[in-house]
């Protein structure tokens, strides 16, 4: 009797998941996900992500049950739990996805050592567009910059199609535990977590909601046709795909998105917007392969410094810079943030407040529902200009605000007191437009000394000398 264990981590789907296509097919199969207890203890996973994760797990369990299988979810130390299950079931093989993160790879190495005398532990690449054989360079040779990576990949660009979901799966090992704990038993705060309605979009974890969103973005709303013009948006549901939480948890694979995009192009023709979306998927790819190359170095080496009052104010959305504070409030209220806002809040923290980038990356890890080890830590390093690509980057936040939120609609949404000021640059510099009513920012970089004045059509400011009451 061959009994296998599939250890699911950030690949919470049945479609295009090679772990379910094991050859030869085992007689019995146990599927398990383990929430690492240390993440809860160290506050590395916040309530928003935990709530989303639980939705993904419940959805996945439904898909597995439909196919004659089931899901076991445990909270604890993942390698220990998977090893105990393998020993108790006398498993013939454990299969797990090859994750990008160093910690995850170390966990697999530990499991392999522990099960040396029991069964092999096999890793399988999935979730990305490419895989090691199709990557046009060795992982050790992934170039330091994205543009060089893209040039190399574009020369031999061939993405395999996604596989379908299995129709049936082997039966559950007799007597083996199954089911998942209620979220309120694991974390009452996560069970009670609700996204702020100001976010204007509701994310729901799971494979089915992921497909609905993909379908909507491509075929339902046709938003993909405008993506190149809208992707730097801040307000609204469809300026970008918002697929990141599902991609990060593996409810959707990048190949599934790519296939759908190709289908759309077959009907409508490729255009700069569909190409731009493909290019974003390539950014994800770049960070994935870069993380696998870098290992532990991705996290920046030594321990980060202690948190200080500047960092705390940034986390709370209380720096006094509306464009930054709006982003941080959106993050706290919804667990998600547009790419434009992420870049700006990160830049202000690192370049203007002078705070260590690793504190920001760790805060994002806790708050984001789309947290992905490679994309998060890779993007933070990129903005900080450390590690593989050390070019100087830094935004003039007020100019960014002027360009991407000219009326101040975004900041007023997350800080309603700003709506009292006339639409325009006053809302981005309330300490200048209504001194006394709004505090001065924690840091005013030298290049902001000159106020960015309203456009002629926006009139002079301050509009209300005392500012809002
Ligand atoms: C400081 C910082 C931290 C970030 N942390 C994460 C993270 O933890 N997880 C995450 O998925 N993305 C992260 N990103 C990248 C990017 O901001 C998000 O992927 C994107 O905003 C998600 O929205 P979307 O799905 O609508 O993206 P779209 O614009 O619709 O793009 C489609 C997909 O392409 C991928 N993608 C787009 N931009 C990037 C990028 N710069 N890097 C990597 N992949 C990208 C994502 O998978 C995304 O879902 C971070 C960016 C910054 C600047």
From TrEMBL:
Give the keywords, sorted.
Chromophore, FAD, Flavoprotein
| Listed name of the protein | Cryptochrome DASH
Matches recorded under Gene3D superfamilies? 1.25.40.80, DNA Cyclobutane Dipyrimidine Photolyase, subunit A, domain 3, HUPs
Q: Name one GO biological process term.
A: photoreactive repair
Q: How is the cofactor bound?
A: Binds 1 FAD per subunit.
Annotated family: Belongs to the DNA photolyase class-1 family.
GO terms for MF: damaged DNA binding; deoxyribodipyrimidine photo-lyase activity; FAD binding
- List each copy of the Photolyase/cryptochrome alpha/beta domain by range: 2-129
Which domain of life does the UniProt lineage start with? Bacteria
Ligand binding (FAD): 227, 240-244, 370-372
Role summary: May have a photoreceptor function.
**NCBIfam families recorded:** crypto_DASH (TIGR02765)
State its cofactor: FAD; (6R)-5,10-methylene-5,6,7,8-tetrahydrofolate
């Amino acid at each position: 009797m061959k009994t296998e264990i599939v250890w699911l981590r950030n690949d919470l789907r049945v479609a295009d998941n090679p772990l379910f296509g094991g050859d030869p097919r085992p007689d019995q199969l146990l599927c398990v996900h383990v929430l690492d207890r240390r993440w809860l203890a160290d506050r590395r996973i916040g309530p928003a992500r935990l709530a989303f994760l639980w939705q993904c797990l419940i959805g996945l369990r439904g898909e597995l049950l439909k196919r004659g299988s089931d899901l076991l979810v445990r909270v604890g130390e993942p390698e220990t739990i998977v090893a105990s299950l393998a020993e108790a079931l006398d498993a013939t093989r454990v299969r797990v996805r090859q994750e990008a993160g160093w910690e995850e790879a170390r966990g697999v190495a530990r499991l392999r050592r522990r099960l040396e005398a029991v069964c092999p532990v096999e890793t399988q690449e999935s979730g990305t567009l490419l895989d090691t054989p199709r990557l046009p360079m060795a992982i050790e040779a992934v170039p330091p910059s994205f543009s060089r990576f893209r040039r190399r990949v574009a020369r031999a660009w061939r993405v395999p199609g996604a596989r379908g979901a299995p129709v049936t799966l082997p039966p559950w090992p007799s007597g083996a535990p199954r089911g998942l704990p209620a979220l309120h038993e694991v974390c009452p705060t996560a069970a009670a977590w609700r996204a702020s309605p100001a976010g204007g979009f509701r994310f729901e974890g799971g494979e089915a909601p992921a497909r609905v969103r993909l379908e909507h973005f491509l075929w339902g709303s046709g938003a993909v046709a405008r993506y190149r013009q809208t992707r730097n948006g801040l307000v609204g549901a469809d300026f970008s795909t918002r697929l990141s939480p599902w991609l990060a948890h593996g409810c959707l694979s990048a190949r599934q998105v790519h296939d759908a995009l190709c289908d759309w192009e077959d009907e409508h023709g490729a255009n700069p917007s569909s190409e731009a979306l493909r290019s974003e998927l390539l950014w994800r790819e770049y960070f994935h392969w870069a993380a696998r190359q870098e290992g532990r170095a991705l996290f920046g080496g030594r321990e980060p410094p202690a948190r200080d009052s500047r960092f705390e104010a940034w986390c709370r959305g209380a720096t006094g810079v509306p464009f930054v504070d709006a982003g941080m409030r959106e993050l706290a209220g919804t667990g998600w943030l547009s790419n434009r806002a992420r870049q700006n809040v990160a830049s202000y923290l690192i370049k203007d407040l002078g705070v260590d980038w690793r504190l920001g990356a760790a805060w994002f890890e806790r708050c984001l529902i789309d947290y992905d080890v490679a994309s998060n830590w890779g993007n933070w390093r990129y903005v900080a200009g450390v590690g593989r690509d050390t070019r100087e980057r830094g935004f003039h936040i007020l100019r960014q605000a002027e360009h991407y939120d000219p009326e101040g609609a975004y900041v007023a949404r997350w800080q309603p007191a700003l709506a009292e000021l006339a639409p325009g640059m006053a809302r981005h510099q309330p300490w200048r437009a209504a001194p006394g009513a709004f505090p001065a920012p924690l840091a005013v970089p030298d290049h902001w000394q000159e106020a960015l004045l309203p456009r002629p059509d926006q009139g002079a400011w301050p509009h209300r000398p005392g500012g809002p009451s």
